[in-house]
Amino acid sequence: MVCYFDNAATTFPKPARVVNAVKECIEYYCGNPGRSSHSLSLKCSEKIYETRETVAHFLGFGHPENICFTQNATHALNIAIKGSIKEKCHCIISDLEHNSVLRPLTKQLTKLGGTLSFFDSSLCAGEAIEPLLQEDTRFVICTMASNVTGSLTDIGGIEQLCRKRGIRLIVDASQYLGHIPLDMSRHDGIDILCAPGHKGLFGIQGSGFILFASGTEGIDTLTEGGSGSNSLSISMPVDLPDRFEAGTVSTPAIVSLCEGIRFLEEFGMHSVKNKIDELTERTADIVSSVKKARILGCDNGICSFKIADTDSEDIARRLDGSGVCVRGGLHCSPLAHKKLGTLHGGTVRISLSVLNTTKELDRLYFALKKL
Amino acid sequence: MRQGWDFIMKSSLTFNNSTVALKAQRQLKRSGINSSLVKLTSDSSGCTYALEIDRADMYSAVYIMRNLGMDFAIRN
């Protein structure tokens, strides 16, 4: 039995109720949602709407129809970035961004001739962003929690600043949701929230969503195609969620997201956070006890470290030999590694889920000692 | 199975997509009004889903939908 500590990439194992719901869907009712009048299609539509309501409720958000399902957070961020930024402008992102923000944004700004600045995520929003503002600053795009260090960005401060300046705020909640409670009714400065379903929310791979908190005016579609609605029109429907859900969505993945969230709600998000905090502290103690280990970030279920100058992938491979799954390398976040000074060799990342146990951490301890 | 009398006893609210129709269905259910979801052929009005409701409940249903600001049409 392996000990899995790569939950920031994708959570494993999934709760039993998630597995059962996916199996039931595939075995008994997986028709094409929103397309046909037969009972299986209608049942899928109902299940998908149930998930929209579940996600909305989980996030304290009142408009389930403003939640569009995507394949993952990258897909959601591509919709948000390429659909929103349509003319030459200046954008600001944090120095911790994942390639899911950096790559589509760079491509879009290069195409339009726009410019990009990076803010220091370790400072408060006013200090970090205010000096970077330009007359043509239109968007701030930032992660809520780093996938390399687990550290949080000052999202409340960023919201205030963006609201005051009329700047649109797009957030990547990939490493935040499922670890820390989020109540969107207290975050009215967020315009668009993007998230995967297969990480902290315990859905399967192929699940994710984009939440349009302040409407979709002026936001273009990324893909066009069948929506099952308004079929006589040659354009995508204006109504949500159909506008941003071209083609068949993955019902099994969406159903899994619903059950993953229900699992978290049953566990209680405050209990989830407490357990992850306890496991994180214990992980920090274990890693600190390893000779020549240097922790570069340890927070909210993530612990990144180096051992002397050994390549992080090499350590990850050796831990795998002891049945411990961790991730080495740059974690698709070169900006964060540039900030940490670990572009060469990357870091070893232990990322936890609420399903990890202290017993598993004991195995991690012995595996690290064996290195 | 749709019964012959349904055409006389039922009326419909129509919606642009299944999500809006399902949202409306849940809102109506909270007010004690039952409805069944039906797919329509997409026409020039763009409505592709309908909620079939007992005629006796139509007045209340329309009142609820309007109060919620929902986009719908009535089909007899």
Outline:
Chain A is of the alpha/beta class and 371 residues long.
How would you explain this protein's 3D organization?
The complex is a heterodimer of chains A (371) and B (76). Chain A is α/β, with parallel strands linked by helices. Chain A has helices at residues 16-29, 39-58, 73-84, 99-112, 125-129, 155-165, 251-267, 269-288, 312-321, 334-340, 358-370, and strands spanning 3-4, 67-70, 90-94, 115-119, 137-143, 168-172, 192-196, 208-212, 293-299, 302-307, 324-325, 348-351. In chain A, the strands form three sheets. Chain A has a seven-stranded mixed β-sheet with strand order 2-8-7-6-5-3-4, sandwiched between helices. In chain A, helix 4 links the parallel strand 3 (90-94) and strand 4. In chain A, helix 2 (39-58) runs parallel beside helix 7. Chain B is an alpha+beta fold and 76 residues long. Chain B is built from three helices and four strands, in the order αβαββαβ. Chain B has helices spanning 6-9, 18-30, 55-67, and strands spanning 10-15, 35-39, 49-54, 73-75. Chain B has a four-stranded antiparallel β-sheet. The two termini of chain B are 19 Å apart. At the A-B interface, helix 2 of A face helix 2 and strand 2 of B.
Apparent shape of chain B: globular
- Tally of extended strands of chain B? 4
Give the strand order, joined by hyphens, for the main sheet of chain A: 2-8-7-6-5-3-4
Oligomeric state of the chains present here: heterodimer
Order of helices and strands of chain A: EHHEHEHEHEHEEEHHEEHEHEH
Radius of gyration of chain A: 21 Å
CA-based shape of chain A: globular
Beta-strand percentage range of chain A: 15-25%
Across the major sheet of chain B, the strand order is 2-3-1-4
Beta content of chain B: 25-35%
Ranges of chain A where pLDDT stays below 50 over 5 or more residues in a row are none
